# Entry
Amino acid sequence: MTRITAARPEHFGAWVRIDDGTLVAVDRALATRLSLDGGPWWTDAPPRPLPLEVHVAVTSRCPADCAGCYQSATRDGEHVSLDALTSTLDALSAMGVFTVAFGGGEPMLRDDLPALAATARARNLVPVVTTSGLGLTREKALSLRDFAQVNVSHDGVAGGYEAVRGFDGEALADRTVRTLVEAGVPVGINHVLTRQNLAHLAAMLDHARALGAVEVQLLRYKPAGRAASLDYLARRLTEAQVDGLGDTLRALAQRHEGALSIRVDCAMVPLLSNTITDPAALARFGVFGCEAGRNLGAVRRDGTLAGCSFDVRHDAVESPLRGASIAAQWEASPELQRFRDAVAAPSEPCAQCSLRSMCRGGCRIVSAHLAGDFGPDPECPRVRAFRATKTDP
Ligand code: SF4
Ligand code: SF4
# Structure
């Protein structure tokens, strides 16, 4: 039986969470029938929309030394204190956030990870966590059942993992998925796509299904942290790989329909834009495009708020807001406003793009790295084609 577990008024009506995972937008009439009072949200000038999901960094410690770690985690990194994280969860709960995603570093190194999940649950937040598996034991797996899902980073079979991360963690990732599945914890796999491992994607999905994962989320390789180097250009997908990606994913989604959920991350949408032209077709992959600073936020280890977890620039929040409450940062951060402005007033070709409502101009982490601004995603095939017409004689 389905249960409404949380609801939050919005200008259009309300967001309603069904059970642990599904968020449904309902109009004002239905929200009223559900006994929701829209209050200030149903006026002509509603307050600023609040995030639905927030990523929370819980540690900078990780022994893996992955070559492309977007958080630049280290072996001697530090855990964020449980008190600080509890205050963060209090603030996110008060804002009506639905989902908190804990990340690191390696969250599994924290002894209090089960307590963190319970703390989130006690505030009606749905907790999920991402791990490489380092530090997971059978006993610890059994203690993680408060998590709605544990996402295991698994970057490939047949040498693909090592090619992406610089160490061979394939066996570790396999063991982690199996241990969690045996413990009764729902497991997803996060799989970063690079030019080195794309050829093995079909085999990787077969493997994920055989391991018992319920979902594979395909992530774009992003130039953040240690990945923001010249190495990025050697690891990102080639233009030819991008051009064929939509057809590849469509075929793989059909192959696994009903058995394995295949999703793509926010940053992947523009890379599908030359083959998947219908926003409804993109919705099949659970796609939401760039939501940084809008439906999505991230709390850095120092308590500052970012548009998303890949926005790791340390000077991102201007000094007057350091130490301010999360709600105050959400309201007043100029850095978050830059993400919102980029969506509200896009330049061409995004302004006229049929996928704009879904894509929202692509990944700002990529455009900031390659072009120094939050303009159209330079790796999008539509942007490439548009710019080619401007430069061709
Ligand atoms: S042109 Fe812009 S909005 Fe359209 S798919 Fe590319 S990046 Fe996204
Ligand atoms: S900038 Fe937008 S698209 Fe890129 S990772 Fe952040 S939320 Fe996703």
